[in-house]
Amino acid sequence: MTFGMVNPHMYYLNKVMSSLFVDTALPDDERSSFRSIRTITDFWKFMEGPLLEGLYWDSWYNNQQLYSVRNSSRIYYENILLGVPRVRQLRVRNNTCRIYSAFQPLIHDCYGKYTTENEDLSDFGLKKSKEWKYSSPPANAPWHWGFVGVYRDGGYIFTLSKSKSKAKTKLADLRLNSWITRGTRVVFIDFSLYNANINLFCIVRLVAEFPATGGLLTSWQFYSVKLLRYVTHYDYFIASCEIIFCVFLFVFITQELRKMNEFKSAYFKSVWNWLELLLLALCFLAVSFYAYCNMQNFLLLGRLLKNTESYPNFYFLAYWHIYYNNIIAITIFFAWIKIFKFISFNETMSQLSSTLSRCMKDIVGFAIMFFIIFSAYAQLGFLVFGSQVDDFSTFQNSIFAQFRIVLGDFNFAGIQQANWILGPIYFITFIFFVFFVLLNMFLAIINDTYSEVKADYSIGRRPDFELGKIIKKSYFNVLEKLRLKKAQDNEDKKIRKTPGDLTQQARKEGFNESEIHEAEQMRAWKERLEKKYYSTEIQDDYQPVTQQEFRELFLYAVELEKELHYISLKLNQMMRKLQ
After folding, report:
1. Mind listing the pLDDT tens digit for each residue in 383-407?
2. Phi and psi based region of residue 83 (left: phi greater than 0; alpha: psi -120 to 50; beta: remaining)
3. Local structure of residue 157 (DSSP, 8 states)
4. For burial by CB atoms within 10 Å, which of 262, 376, 398, 532 has the most?
5. Which of 125, 50, 37, 48 is CA-nearest to residue 89?
6. How many CA atoms lie within 13 A of 198 on its CB side?
C-alpha cells in the first residue's frame, strides 16, 4: 500500500522540470541561471527569458488553454500547463528597524526583516491594478519556510496572460515601474503541470528571497503527486489493499483495548506495547490524512480544472499529500522496527538485542558526555568560523558539519583560511578527542557488553525463544482441541506436589526435624533466586545483584557445599558397608 502511492517517474519528472526552469542559462550570460542569480537585474532577466520560454509555446495545442513546455533544444509535449502562472510578493514597511542615534541624520529609510508585524499591507507604486494592491491570505493557506524567514500567503499578486507576448509586456511594464523595491522581501512564482502519460501532477514553486542584508537567495520546490488516484487496474488493486488495511486497523485496535483492560497498568511496562500503541496512532493518523486529502481532491480538483482563465492553486493539495506521504513513511519505519519483537527465534539476533538492552544505561551516560564535548566544539566553531565558512554559518550547521567531519567529509582549507591559528587547533583537537577517544569508548562499551552476553549464553543463561514458544503453545492448543492430547494444566496438577506433602513424605522416610527445616529453607532460597534470575517471564536476562542478594547467594552456596559434603560422607559410608 505504501509503494502504491509512490511512482518511480516522480523523480524523473522533477528532474526535467528542474533542468528546464532552474538550470537554463540567462540571456547573454551562459554562466548564470535561476540557481545562481544574486541581483534584481538578473531576476528580471530570468522572468522575461527562461521562465517565459519554459512556460509558453508559440502555438496553441488543440486550441485549448494548455501549453507545452520546452527548453532550448527540445519541446516537451508531454507536460501541459494548467491554467495560468501566478506571481506574488511580500513586502515590509519603511522604518521597521531601529537606527542608532548617531546615524539618524544620514539614514532616512530602514527596512527590517520580514515578520507579520513588519509586513506592508498598503498599496504602493501605481496603485491602479491588482499587482499594486495588497490581497489578504486565505484562512487555511499553508506558510512557506524560506532561508531567512517564514512567509504566509497573500501579498501583491498578479497572474500572467495566456499569451506569451502579453505576458512579456506585463513583466516589462512591472520592471520599468519598479514593482520590486527595497521593501520587497520575497517573490513567489507558482504554476502547475500535468503529465497524462504517467498520471502525475507537478506543482512548481520558484522562490526568490531578498534578505535585509541585500542580495538575493533562490530556492525551488517541485512536488510530483498523484491526485487522480484510481485510474488503472493496479490502482483499484491498491484501493482493495487500503480497505483491508482499515479492517486490520480496526481489529488491532480492538485487541489492544482488550489487552489494556486485562493487564491494567502492567500493560504499559512493556516497550513493545508502547511501540504497538505508537503504530496504531500513526496508522489512524494516516487514515485521517488519506480521507482529508481525498475529500479535498473531490471538492477542489474539478473546480480548479474547470476555470482555465485563472491560477489553479494545486499547491494546497500537494502540501497535504506530502504530509500524508511523510506519515506513511514514519509508519512503515516503525512497522519494520517491530520485527525485532519476533526475531528471538534466532540466537544471533537474540544476542544483539540483549546486548543493546543491557548496555543502554552505559550508552546514555556516554551520550551525555559525548554531547557536552560535541556542543562545546560546535559553539566554538560557530563563533570562530560562522562569519566566514558556510558550514558554520549557524549553530545547527556547525553541529551537522561536525558529524560530517567524523565521517570524513570536511573543508579544512576553509577552516584554516577563516582563522589560521584557531582553525588547525580546533580541527586537530576535535579529531583527537571525538574521533579517536570518544568513538572508541563507544565501541568498547558495545564490545564489552557483547562479550558478557556471549558468556551468559555459553553457560545457558539465555531467554526463551519467544516465537518458538508461541508456535509450540499454538501446536499444543490445536492438539487439545482435537482431543489428541490432554490439557497441560491437568497433567501439571497431577505431577505437582505441595510443600506439605513433601514434608510428610520426608518424615515417613526417617528424616529428623532439623534436616527437614534446613531443606525447606534451601528450597525457599532456591525458588526466590530462580524466580529473580531464571524466570521465563522476564524479558531482559540481565538483573543487577544488590549487596543483600549477594550475601544470600553466598550463604546459599555455603549451604549447598555443606550438603554436598554431607552427601559425600553418606556415600562413602554406604560404599564401605557394601565392601
Report:
1. 999 989 988 988 999 999 999 998 8
2. left
3. E
4. 398
5. 125
6. 20
Helix 347-358, helix 439-458: angle, nearest 10: 130
pTM over 0.85: no
Residue 299 identity (one-letter amino acid): L
Residue type, 82: L
Residue type, 572: N
Residue keyed to cell 542608532: 100
* pLDDT tens column, 356-374: 888 888 899 899 999 999 9
Burial per residue of 195-210, b for 16 or more beta-carbon CB atoms within 10 angstroms, e otherwise? beeebbbbbbbbbbbb
What per-residue confidence (pLDDT) applies to 53?
Answer: 86
Per DSSP, 64 falls in state B
| Distance of alpha carbon 62 from alpha carbon 82, whole angstroms | 14
* 10 within 8 A of 224, measured Cβ to Cβ: yes
Name the DSSP class of 389: -
Distances (CA, A) of 540 to 320, 356, 447: 42, 11, 18
The C-alpha cell at 386 is: 560562522
Note the residue count of the chain. Answer: 579
The mean pLDDT of 207-232, rounded to a whole number, is 90
Grouping H, G, I as helix, E, B as strand and the rest as coil, residue 494 is helix
Arithmetic mean of pLDDT over the chain: 82
